[in-house]
Amino acid sequence: MKSLFLVVTVATFAWPLLAFSQGLSLEFRESAPTDSFTIINTSACTVDANVVIDLTSSQGRLIFDTTAKGAGVEVSQPFEIGSGAEFVAKTPNINDGDKSALIALQGLQVGGKVVFTIDLDDTLPNSSLGQIRVAGSEIAGARVSVTTNATFSGKFDDNAHAQITMDSCPTS
Question: What are the C-alpha distances in Å from 120 to residues 37, 59, 66, 137, 156?
Fold first, then answer.
């Protein structure tokens, strides 16, 4: 009787973990002088996908600040891969003032991650940290879409985290 209870308990707790783990997790981190994004493959398969980070609906009306002169304020930073370059198909073209970025992932292994730096600024007239620093709540509402053989989407929350859940592993 004890072993039957154990089997039922494992099955009950394993299902939600498997259902949640099919996708990509994104995290934004404010840092000086550069901000960073981390993309982690939380699925059970290798992922080839186009990931679009769209800041248009962010609470802080965020923009990418990639050059010293232009839409951003003071400190700027172009796109630069910190780790996981082998999983990025090509360096994205992100211009100063852009509100979206396309990151093409190729062969991102289970548990693998890509970390890249870039500067974000808010465009609010009055913000809690000023326009050169971004609070986690200011990226809230920014959309992320992941396109494999289908498109899945999600939003950043107040903690600067987005979880994109895919129905299953993509097929080629």
Answer: 11, 13, 8, 13, 14
With 0-12 CB in 10 A as exposed, 13-18 as middle and 19+ as buried, what is 11?
A: exposed
pLDDT value of residue 164: 94
As to burial, measured by CB atoms within 10 angstroms (0-12 exposed, 13-18 middle, 19+ buried), residue 114 is: buried
Residue 56 sits at φ, ψ, to 5 deg, of -50, -40
Confidence of residue 106 (pLDDT cuts 50, 70, 90): very high
Identity at 96, one-letter amino acid code: D
List beta partners, residue 14: none
6: pLDDT strictly greater than 60? no
Contacts (Cβ under 8 Å, ≥6 apart) of 18: 44
Between 138 and 1, residue with greater pLDDT: 138
37 pLDDT exceeds 90? yes
- The DSSP symbol for 76 reads -
Instruction: Assign 88 to helix, strand or coil.
Output: strand
Q: Whose structure tokens read 């986690």?
A: 136
Q: Is the per-residue pLDDT at 128 higher than 80? A: no
DSSP state of 33: S
Burial class (CB in 10 A: 0-12, 13-18, 19+), 67: middle
